[in-house]
Amino acid sequence: MGVKDLLKSIWHAFTALDVDHRGKVSKSQLKVLSYNLCTVMKIPHDPVAFEEHFKDDSKGPLSSDGYMLYLNRFILDKVQEDFDVTEFHRMCWTLCYKKKMRSPHLSISINDAFKVWCIFNFLSEDKYPLVIIIDEIEYFLRKLTEAMGIGLDEEKFAEYKANSKSCLSAWETINLVGMTYFCREVEPQTLSMGINHVFTELIMDVLKQGYMVKKGHKRKNWTERWFVLRPTALSYYESEDVLDLKGEIVLDQSCCVEALNDKDGKKCLFIIKCSDKSFEIRAPDKKKRQEWIQAVHSCIQLRRLGLTSPHREARRRRREVRQRQQAEEEELAERMKELQAANERKQRELEDMRMKMEEAAARAAREELQRKKTELDMQDRYRLDLEREKLVRLQMEEQMAQKSSELEQYLQRVRELEDMYHLLEEALEDERQAKHDEEAMRKLQSRLLQEEAAKRAELEQLHLQQQRELVQTEVEKKELIAEQQAKDRDLQAAALQLQRLKKEQQDALEQYEEMSKKLERAANKTKTWKDKVAKHEGLVRLIQPGQKEPQRMTNWGPASFTDTELEMRKKFWQQSKAKGAQTQT
């Protein structure tokens, strides 16, 4: 409950004490009122502070402005949240309703009138004297008729809205509700229940209430309780008279609510998880469970956002909308005034312009006569100027024709240079491609020679292995013969592979010759090609390790070893063969 809402109830009590309607009340009455306020709000009363504050006003009654300053300084600043707000409102109501209510034909009780009075204070503007505007009256009546389960009579309300004042006092609002003018005939009990529902929702901050079954924490039994949901907590009571409070679930930012699956024969379950414990609750049906989950989740979200109750937030937003609309209307009125003033200025300017146009018309008539006199002279002058311009134009055309011819020659030369440039680019591209193909051919030839050398070494190893196996004992001769046959087959396979490599080498040589022909064709397109081929001619030969002796040529191209190396290997083979023969003998 905000301080502004408390001040509204106190303002009603103050105006009830102001019997002369002069806006002032005696000091003794205000002292009693202050004492009662402190008692209800559980604040220690300080009579010395009261006398000290009003020591300069000892001669007469006190105004509402001075008393409001005293309240804000010595009472309202000390207010805590632990006092009964309803009792506070009822005390202020008791002081004023007997003096202000004058309509005896109301269909509502004094208690219901008190609740309407509290709703008025909640919805009224924060200006004194307190009034409620027609938009808030419509909001209240719609919630009231919705709570009663009937509809608002739109035609009657539209008629009332068009013919009545734009705002009402608290007592006019009570008379309006008590006469049940805007809804169809309802029973007094139904009207009382509707007023109580709106009062509970708006004033008591009860967002939802109803019977549900709660699981205990100690005995784990399920007990039916009357639950009351407020923005900060979910309280549960013994019954709906809310006298015996059994417990309270404090809703903070860390809480969460979610539905539970059916278990142990219990259906429509949901759980509220707090930081210290969790609460399992069973709703009457699935619809009620969803409504309770949404309501509890909305309260938790409000706490996380640091907002008050949803009805107070809605009231604040409605007031902000009205303030914006009022500011826009004032701005529009100001703009209308500015536009009206601008229109008047424009009218004066148009009148001045009309007079100037009349003067300009008379002046134009005089100038027309003068123009006709000088027109013939001007025509003669224009004729002479036109002849001179024709001569100049002919000269310019001759110059343009000459320039066009020069430009065409220049463009022709540029096109020839571009064609020559494209031909040179094509020749260079062919040269680069030929180099690339030559390098690829060289790499392919080197790879084939290396594979040939590896296969030859493998054949030599196989031959040596066969020679060593021949010198073994006669007992192993049959097994050696079988192994030798296997080796012979491997040797034949290796020979076949060697033939395949020779064929690949022959294909590579053919490709090499084809690449050479391409190089010759590329040499015809560029003048520098032969020099570049001469520089790179030595790169065609493979670089072999060892001594620099004449390279041995075979049927498949350059060999992978020199003649000296071949002689050394031949001697080695002969020695190995002689040793093998000695071993057999």
UniProtKB/TrEMBL annotation:
Keywords, alphabetical: Coiled coil
| Ranges in a coiled coil | 311-532
PROSITE patterns from the xrefs? PH_DOMAIN (PS50003)
An example GO CC term for this entry is: nucleus
Q: Which CDD domains match?
A: PH_SWAP-70
Q: Which SMART domains match?
A: PH
Q: Name one GO molecular function term.
A: DNA binding
PH domain spans which residues?
Answer: 205-301
Keyword Coiled coil included in the entry's annotation: yes
Q: Which PANTHER family match?
A: SWAP-70 RECOMBINASE (PTHR14383), SWITCH-ASSOCIATED PROTEIN 70 (PTHR14383:SF6)
Q: List the protein's name.
A: Switching B cell complex subunit SWAP70a
